[in-house]
Specification:
Layout: H1 9-57, E1 64-67, E2 72-79, E3 84-90, E4 93-98, E5 102-105
Antiparallel strand pairs: 1-2, 1-5, 2-3, 3-4
Length: 107
């Protein structure tokens, strides 16, 4: 049989205090982790998305662009209140994409 004679009331009280400190530390760490995640992940993504939307609104006919799928082309025209864009990908070959599918503008 196991002998638990070493568990005196003083040791049990200390163990309970340590447990309380541990749970308080966990409650403090969770919000700190959430704030860190916001600044390290969410905020940079928002900034990048804002820059991308600004780039899309400044596109003009004749700009060379790359789509999300990796297709390179030259903007021929915009349709549907700039919701779609027609790209020339080769001689006599035009393809229509959503404007949101444009990943970047080639310089």
């Amino acid at each position: 049989m196991l002998n638990f004679n070493f568990l005196t009331p003083e040791i049990l009280i200390l163990a309970q205090e340590e447990g309380a400190k541990s749970s308080l530390q966990s409650l403090i760490i969770i919000p700190i982790m959430l704030v860190a995640m916001y600044f390290l992940v969410i905020l940079p993504n928002k900034k990048e998305e804002k820059k991308r939307k600004e780039m899309i609104t400044n596109l003009q006919k004749g700009d060379n662009v790359v789509t999300n799928s990796g297709l390179h082309g030259k903007i021929v025209e915009f349709k549907d209140n700039n919701e779609t864009v027609v790209l020339s990908v080769a001689a006599n070959t035009n393809v229509t994409f959503e404007t949101s599918a444009i990943l970047k503008k080639k310089v």
